[in-house]
Each structure stands twice: as C-alpha cells, then as structure tokens.
Amino acid sequence: MGLKIHKNKLITLKDLEIKQWEVYDLDDYKINQNQSLLALSEWMQKNKLEKLICRTQILIAPPYQLKICDGIITNFHQPKSTLLLLISAIVGENWKKIYHYAIQNNFRFLSYGDSSLLLK
Questions:
Q1: What domain range includes position 33?
Q2: One domain, residues 40 and 76
Q3: 3-class DSSP assignment, residue 74
Q4: 24: Cβ contacts below 8 Å, ≥ 6 apart
C-alpha cells in the first residue's frame, strides 16, 4: 500500500486495495521499507485517518519476498493448501524439512495444532 501511495499521492482508499497478484506486478518498482511506511503514514495524516481498514486479496507464494517482516508464527497447514505456498515463500525449499520433522515427531496439524516460528 505504501508503494502504491508512493507512486500516486492522490490515490483513493478504494484504489489502495491490493488484488490477488498485484504484489508481483508492483515488485518491479523499488522503494525501501522506510519509504513505503513513511508514504503510508503521510497519506493517512493527509486523509485524517488514525487507522486504516482496507481489503486485500494477496496470495503470497514463491517467488514473493517479504518486505517488512522476517517471518511468521503459524500452525502446520494441510498439503496442497495456499497456506503452504505462504510458508514456502518465506522459508523456501526448507518447508519440506520442517514438515518432515513435524510429521516424524507427531506434531498436530491444522487450526488447533502445534505452531512454529518460521524465519526467512
């Protein structure tokens, strides 16, 4: 969102929404995290917003690279799920080793299962 604002200071809240694959199209336009967050903060101040509520449809999958955070706290997901694509985008091919370890050690999967901290 900060990147979209950086490109267009007059962007509307509706146009700030992120579509499913849009993050991959925007990836060619390079700004750093500080510039992105500053653009977002200034836009919110200009529009007199104390909080930002906006829709996204982002599907994070390889080769997407995280921009702001370095990892995720999550549970173990079902095979062939889009959530497993998210894990793969963060830790790369190591997701196979992580899941193999979880299966070998009887970790619980899905919503009420065990969780893990995964870093890129």
A1: 2-46
A2: no
A3: strand
A4: 64
